[in-house]
Amino acid sequence: MSNSDNFKKVLSSTSQQVCVVAGPGSGKTKGILIPKAKSLIDNGIDPKAILLLSFSRLSALDLKTRVQSLDQVPRASTVHAFCLQYLLSENDHAIRDRIKSIAMDFELDYLIHDLKLLFPKVNKKDLRKQLKEFSAGWATMQHEEVSERDEYQRRFKAAVVNWLSEHTAVMMEEIVYFALDHIRKSGKPQYLNGIEYIFVDEYQDLNKLEQEFIKILGEGSKLLLTVGDPDQSIYSFKFAWKDGIQSFYNNTDTDSYTLPFCGRCDKKILEVANQFLVQESPDRQDLPQPLNGKPDGSVDIRPAFRLQSGEYRFIVDSITERLESGEDAKDILVLVPKPKLGQEFMTYLASEDLVLPNGCKFELVSRPKFTENQQARILLLSLIVDPNSVIHARSYLGLGDDSGYALELKTIKEHYGSWSALLSSADPDDFPRRSRRIREVCKKVQALRDTITTLTSLESKTIIDRLFPDTDEEFTSLNKLLKSFDSDGTSISDIYSVFIEYIRSIPQDDKTIQVMTIMASKGLEASHVYIMGCNAGNIPGTNRTNHLSDFEHKQEQRRFLYVGFTRARNSVTVTWTKHIPYRQSKNHSTPGIRTTKINGQLMTQVGICEFLQDLTI
Question: pTM for this structure?
Fold first, then answer.
């Protein structure tokens, strides 16, 4: 038995709305999305009329890679990126003046510095928490309802909106909201009218606003095909609406199908993974099934290690054996429930100076963290591309100071009247000598103007070498990376765009064993998967959301393990430690059973993850 019969039914459907619930490894991309796009193009449909969308950059990158094999290539994008291009194409929307500059993660630190001037009695940690709540509001409610509970929230909201407007910048969270707002008010403009065939992958990961945008986009189209799996819904932190795909599936106007067979996982892996689904819904019968002829595979839940060093060493030794037996590094994946645990693992590797065979290495996949010097050069690169970007200039000028020179920049801006005047005219001689810090910032502005003027006239390769000299170890990797995006005639603007997209994706090469969170692994697969740190407190972790009940949170955490297990083709190895450092339990917010001392070190005793306790292996 296989999914081939349902592939044929989906591909031959003439319905305007089609929904496919497709489990892990069901072959939905290879069996439906790409063949359907190819069939349309082969039958004379303009590829510009075909749009493939997904939630994650990883999934969108996979779609982009696969459509390259077609004779004519349709567009493939994340929903966010598509909404951004849509807003850039239109002029009559609320963020037209600031849509060109999307704030990088580290640039929001300077928003916090500036907010501190307006809210001096609120500490920066609470300001960041409030900003996170404000950002989340874009995914769940109307703009006029965001941060409106009390007078403080209204003042905070006004301050953030004014700052973004003044710095002509936009936060990523705003983009879908304003795209939906525009399409609601204006109808489908010319930019969208040519799109007649819409494919949406990982539909369960979209939030309600994103799903509504898709619904409006699909009105009047010739085909809206959605694919997803509610069992793999693990993005509640992005307000993913898990029930949306089921609602679409049950719509009377929808031609609906399921893909019940998993072609990825060996039998034992899928058998154990399915037990997580039964834990969530004990009466459930419609479980994913292995393809006929699949080998057994293996699931190994290791006994507790006494100390974390033993757990880490076991993983390294086991992977070393696999590499020495001929396994490729790219076929091994190490997963952790929490980002900090991955960092602890990498710290252990560095402290032990462990070397893997065949030149292989571990690499932690996480949001890139740049040093302050690297941030400065990246910001200079962004200002060469867009010299008028206020947010990039403000961020650059704030580097090197604990307060981001917030008060000084405020004073200078008030003196000249605007940011544009500050950037073009700031002169230390316009301020008294006793205003030392203000004069320092003015000198920094002058140096910035001169640097941009000098570098803008240079060729791309020369700009890269000037900003990221390969003779400096701090910049060597960035130099190599940026030059890999350069070919004859490539503009510095195009190189920068590819760079920004790249640092938001997941790197991979044949010698790298990726270490990442279970959440980040979604969409990946490997022959052998290790899931470490599976003790109580790590998974399920503490419910830190405002929108999920403790029960809903626990159910999602269970699905984390389902996703982790189903990344594997041939084997899953699960590890946990009975005693973790007390410091780590506090830093990671990992609750324990008791505190004890081992070899003079304060330790926290923990148990095994409750989801693993009753599994039948």
Answer: 0.85
